[in-house]
Amino acid sequence: MKRIPPLFPQGSTSPPCTRDTGEQQEEAAGAMGGHNPTEVQMSQLVLPCHSNQHGELSAGQLLKWIDTAACLSAERHAGCPCVTASMDDIYFEHTISVGQVVSIKAKVNRAFNSSMEVGIQVSYEDLCSGKHCSICKAYATFVAQGPPGTKVKLKPLTPQTEEEKIEHSIAAERRRMRLVHKDTIKDLLTRSTSNTEMETRDGSVVVPAEKTRVESVELVLPPHANHQGNTFGGQIMAWMENVATIAASRLCHAHPTLRAIEMFHFRGPSQVGDRLVLKAIVNNAFKNSMEVGVCTEAYDQEMSVSRRHINSAFMTFVVLDEEGRPRTLPMVMPQPGDGERRYREASARKKIRLDRKYVVSCKQTEVPLSVPWDQSNKVYLSYNNVSALKTLVAKANWVLAREKEKVQIYTLEEDKFLSFRIEMSVHISAGQAFSLLSDLRRRHEWDRHYESAELVQQVDEDDAIYHVLSQTLSCENKPQDFVILASRRKPCSRGDPYVVAFRSVTLPTHPASTNYTRGETLCSGFCVWPESEEMSKVAYYNQATPGYLNYVTTNVVGLSSNFCATFEACEKFLLKNKDDLIARLQDL
């Protein structure tokens, strides 16, 4: 396969911050070694009281520490009490033994209106060997709480370092994914469960799912809650992990290890004095892993109202042998009715988890260029598409390589990629430029490399898939074609750009043809920043690959003017069509 030519062809806790002004916070940050003012560091020595029967740190205790560190970071930024609203997927890469030190770093990535995303990194240190190892990375959403009946509006957070700018930019994309998470799961389960068959494995023991059912009650006491009397989210997660572990143990008659927790949301608070009822059951057991569903409900002492649903979560467990390899598990026989429904849904969720982990969690360079697109991974491919471009935009080491009149060309050299961006200011509003550039069917009007672009599927309001035909390159005997996912994003808040991101996908309806050389693009697209009501900065980004470095460098050093000429044609296209666009919008 050929890749697209890069231009237009395609514990101890840090002391709380007590000063109020931005200058004082910067001084405090300097005193802490240049840390982000919201950063909290926690170090905990794992003692026997924190461990399970293996002498390893219990996942429940780790979840409590993670939630505590994240909450302190959120409160440092908000200046008021905060509560846990949700937690994204967590994948535990290693276990931690008694005597090792757990290090947790948490800092606010971005503040929205009344909620904020906190990024958490967990690692451990072996004090004897000096070995350090990453355990997991997590993202939690916290909501600031003011006096009863009032809503706290959070101050914006200004990122300073390259890493902070990347996390700040992608946080908006993660927030978008969280907001549609429930509907996405419901839609995917509806499409998937009807085709799920009961698994059969020769010689496997079959355990009725009802034998794994667990129910436990916990009384919320003052040590379990914050100073407003709301139960700590981490405490609830620890209790949930406890009953889930018991359910998993009843299936395998061994001590299971928690490997992952699926994204979940707290639906409502619980307070001191509440009784929390926790229920767990093994929904499905695959060859080497099992899914346990856990539900938490609350009621008060008087039982004056019906039980309140606090949250539900799905946890994945494995059983490791002496060499640390996952053992084969018994099969589950679900009860008719709800048991069979949970069994089928667990199979569908496993596919969803794999899609989400594969596309969202891994590094950009680990994702194949053309990932198969289908309904089950559309949200995650869209996320990956936009976040990859935003990551490229936020890089700090861009160097001005060439300037011709109003067009500037910048390059970024890292690892095996040479990326470039081309930008210029255009007398057009950012919204108009965004609308015109996001429709690939009009690309041929200004980009001579494009022959045509057919809209294959309008996925939703923000995403579309196109089949693009380009001209024959000098080094090829036949034209190229591409199947491209185009993802549009309007600004999430002031200062954000309009984004149009492109990446290759594969569709069964459009396989590679002998009439064309199938091209691919890894990461490219436009960002448009408003400079005034009638002026915008338009920038095109592309992550080139070794096969086309000669084409890129020829333009960068000035031996060719294709880049500049194409971008100047783009400017003329925008200026020519902005009035027609205004007229069409007025007619609507």
Automatic annotation (TrEMBL):
One Gene Ontology term from the biological process aspect of the record: fatty acid metabolic process
Molecular function GO terms recorded: carboxylic ester hydrolase activity; lipid binding; long-chain fatty acyl-CoA hydrolase activity
Key word Calcium present: no
Record's catalysed reaction(s): hexadecanoyl-CoA + H2O = hexadecanoate + CoA + H(+); butanoyl-CoA + H2O = butanoate + CoA + H(+); tetradecanoyl-CoA + H2O = tetradecanoate + CoA + H(+); dodecanoyl-CoA + H2O = dodecanoate + CoA + H(+)
EC numbers: 3.1.2.2
Subcellular location: Cytoplasm; Mitochondrion matrix
Keyword terms, alphabetized: Cytoplasm, Fatty acid metabolism, Hydrolase, Lipid metabolism, Mitochondrion, Phosphoprotein, Repeat, Serine esterase, Transit peptide
Pathway linked to the protein: Lipid metabolism; fatty acid metabolism
Domain START: 398-556
Subcellular location, principal: cytoplasm
Pfam families for the chain: 4HBT (PF03061), START (PF01852)
InterPro entries: Cytosol_ACT, HOTDOG_ACOT, HotDog_dom_sf, START-like_dom_sf, START_lipid-bd_dom, Thioestr_dom
Region (Disordered): 1-36
HotDog ACOT-type domain sequence ranges: 36-148, 210-323
GO CC terms, sorted: cytosol; mitochondrial matrix
Function summary: Has an acyl-CoA thioesterase activity with a preference for the long chain fatty acyl-CoA thioesters hexadecanoyl-CoA/palmitoyl-CoA and tetradecanoyl-CoA/myristoyl-CoA which are the main substrates in the mitochondrial beta-oxidation pathway.
Protein name, as recorded: Acyl-coenzyme A thioesterase 11
Organism: Pavo cristatus
